[in-house]
């Protein structure tokens, strides 16, 4: 064990989320403000109590639909007075805002950090169906560190790269389409009891197998569904959190490591950054994978949920296929419920913080019709390829 | 739809223009005698600056692949094969490319391939065909 595990000084005290729509009539800023004010009130705080802001990936200075609102804009819009704020894409994936915010608190810069993530891809696609193509991330020649190695070969979506991880997983471990389907079917079952989910009609194995191929072996139902939404989380210093209306959810351990090249094709095809994050996370706690009561695992693509199951040691490496077979183990009444709100596959691509929001709802017993059995420990993880971060959460 | 082409610079020019002389050029470190990719000014393994582009055979195997069916943009001519090819010179030395001149359903992991360049403007794309 390490001498000091900084994240143990930090707790989640409040959560908030805007409407999830496809598309929303509201602006990205309005969605953000709705989520943030709800989270601040949920934490029993006032705007003046917020002294830090964190966001992944920030607005990249261009306000595009992947992340239209960053910390600068939110500080302005809500009139916040902060000691520290930060955003940006570089980091351990969609949970980087939480990880950075926790560091700001543990280092003594802040007492209450507002973390948020906003996305308006549905609105963007109303006017430009190609808005999210990788080739449109740069104008003219591709000068980006990562994408220049892929776009010349007509890799126009992350699905192409992640499909190659899935193909390799099938090849190395004998994983089958029917096993992969369980991630999508589980998400849809859970979405049916989540009033905010985008897709709520029943899905059968036949529906899955007949859905069109996007990039083999990934079918349409292996790919998440874009939406307009914002999610916000309030992090508080542990001694401050004791006065909060919600029982504090401590950040027991963080996984943010990357010990392989930041690259979509040089990194291990069946492990990605997820395995580095998982190993780090478990090295910072005495808890064990068997203590986990629920897992909210990134499902931007179904294969990534399978990889996270292995990376977090929730099942042995290479055995996620047999682990999810039949879907019973991962169902809401199974021993390891996953993606209990429908994930991003059926719930909507809230992109990262949606998993944390759901983990907290479940820990606090506030998940309504989809509430699972009482538990104290949850894990959330997000990212694929070279992006990967995880959080072990404990309600004392 | 014309392909998106890379912006050339001092580090990546050899890789993208080697095909002009029908040569696949991968960055090589003389200090630790290892190839690395993507190309850069310093070896990520030993931090030596004694690196330069070095010709490789252009032969390798498919490490993984996908058949893209989705028309992300107009005139993409789907379905087509995207692959990660691992070169025979060194385990783990690989990059994303396309496999051409075969029925898309015939590609498989482990398939031997060799490079074939296609010029677009001032870029020679290293594509692969079945060996
Ligand atoms: Zn070297």
Explain what this protein looks like in three dimensions.
The complex is a heterodimer of chains A (396) and B (131). Chain A contains 13 helices and 11 strands. Chain A has 396 residues and is α/β, with parallel strands linked by helices. Chain A has one domain: Peroxisomal Thiolase, Chain A, domain 1. In chain A, β5 and β6 form a beta hairpin. In chain A, α6 (177-191) packs across α10 (302-311). With 131 residues, chain B is mainly β. Chain B has one domain. The model of chain B has no long low-confidence stretch (mean pLDDT 97). In chain B, the strands form 2 sheets. A 5-stranded mixed barrel of chain B has the order 4-5-6-8-7. A 3-stranded antiparallel beta sheet of chain B has the order 2-1-3. Chain B has one helix at residues 13-17, and strands at 24-29, 34-36, 51-56, 59-68, 80-87, 94-100, 112-120, 123-130. Chain B is built from 1 helix and 8 strands, in the order αββββββββ. Classes of the chains: A alpha/beta (396), B mainly beta (131). The structure holds zinc ion. Zinc ion (ZN) is lined by residues 29, 31-32, 34, 43, 45-46, 48 of chain B. The site of zinc ion has 8 residues of chain B, from loops.
- What is the terminal separation of chain A in angstroms? 21 Å
Largest β-sheet summary of chain B: 5 strands, mixed, barrel
CATH fold node name of chain A? Peroxisomal Thiolase, Chain A, domain 1
CATH class of chain A: Alpha Beta
How do the strands line up in the largest sheet of chain B? 4-5-6-8-7
Question: How big a fraction of the residues of chain B is strand?
Answer: 35-45%
Strand content of chain A: 15-25%
Described by the principal axes of the CA atoms, the overall outline of chain A is: globular
Largest sheet of chain A: 9 strands, mixed
Helix content estimate of chain B: under 10%
Per DSSP, the total helix count of chain B is: 1
Number of domains of chain A: 1
Distance between the termini of chain B: 28 Å
The neighbouring-strand order within the major sheet of chain A is: 3-2-4-7-1-8-11-10-9
Gyration radius from CA atoms of chain B, angstroms: 15 Å
Mean pLDDT of chain A: 96
- How many domains comprise the coordinates of chain B? 1
Ligands in the model, by name, code or SMILES, are:
zinc ion
Rounded to the nearest angstrom, the radius of gyration of chain A is 19 Å
Helix content of chain A: 25-40%
Pick out the low-confidence regions of chain A.
none
């Amino acid at each position: 064990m390490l001498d000091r595990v900084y994240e143990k000084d930090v707790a989640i005290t409040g959560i908030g989320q805007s409407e999830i729509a496809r598309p929303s009539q509201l602006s990205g800023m309005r969605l953000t403000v709705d989520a943030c004010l709800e989270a601040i009130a949920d934490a029993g705080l006032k705007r003046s109590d917020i002294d830090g802001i964190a966001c992944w990936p920030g607005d990249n200075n261009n306000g595009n639909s992947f992340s239209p609102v960053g910390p600068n804009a939110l500080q302005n819009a809500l009139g916040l007075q902060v000691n520290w704020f930060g955003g940006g894409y570089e980091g351990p994936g969609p949970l980087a805002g939480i990880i950075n915010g926790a560091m700001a608190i543990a280092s003594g810069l802040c007492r209450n950090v507002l973390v948020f993530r906003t996305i308006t891809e549905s609105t963007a696609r109303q006017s430009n169906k190609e808005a999210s193509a990788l080739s449109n991330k740069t104008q003219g020649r591709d000068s980006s560190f990562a994408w220049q190695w892929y776009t010349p070969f007509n890799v126009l979506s992350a699905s192409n790269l992640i499909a190659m991880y899935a193909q390799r997983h099938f090849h190395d471990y004998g994983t089958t389409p029917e096993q992969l389907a369980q991630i999508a079917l589980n998400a849809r079952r859970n979405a049916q009891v989540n009033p905010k989910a985008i897709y709520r009609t029943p899905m059968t194995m036949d529906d899955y197998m007949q859905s069109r191929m996007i990039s083999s072996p990934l079918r349409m139902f292996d790919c998440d569904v874009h939406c307009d939404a914002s999610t916000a989380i309030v992090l508080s210093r542990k001694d401050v959190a004791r006065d909060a209306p919600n029982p504090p959810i401590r950040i027991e351990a963080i996984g943010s490591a990357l010990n392989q090249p930041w690259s979509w094709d040089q990194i291990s095809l069946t492990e990605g950054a997820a395995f580095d994050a998982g190993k780090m996370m478990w090295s910072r706690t005495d808890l064990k994978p068997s203590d986990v009561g629920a897992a909210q695992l990134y499902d931007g693509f179904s294969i990534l949920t399978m990889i996270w199951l292995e990376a977090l040691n929730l099942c042995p490496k290479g055995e996620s296929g047999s682990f999810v077979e039949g879907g019973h183990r991962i169902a809401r009444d199974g021993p390891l419920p996953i993606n209990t709100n429908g994930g991003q596959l059926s719930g909507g691509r809230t992109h990262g913080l949606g998993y944390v929001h759901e983990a907290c709802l479940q820990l606090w017993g506030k998940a309504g019709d989809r509430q699972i059995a009482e538990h104290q420990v949850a894990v959330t993880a997000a990212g694929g390829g070279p992006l990967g971060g995880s959080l072990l959460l404990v309600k004392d | 739809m014309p392909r998106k082409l890379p912006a050339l610079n001092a580090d990546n020019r050899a890789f993208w223009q080697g095909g002009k002389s029908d040569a696949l050029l991968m960055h090589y470190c003389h200090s630790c005698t290892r190839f690395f990719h993507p190309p850069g000014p310093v070896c990520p393994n030993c931090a030596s600056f004694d690196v330069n582009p070095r010709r490789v055979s252009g032969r390798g195997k498919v490490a993984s692949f996908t058949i893209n069916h989705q028309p992300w943009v107009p005139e993409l001519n789907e379905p087509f094969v995207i692959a990660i090819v691992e070169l025979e010179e060194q385990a783990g030395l690989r990059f994303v490319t396309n496999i051409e001149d075969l029925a898309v359903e015939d590609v498989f992991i482990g398939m031997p391939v060799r490079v074939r360049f296609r010029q677009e403007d001032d870029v020679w794309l290293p594509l692969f065909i079945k060996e």
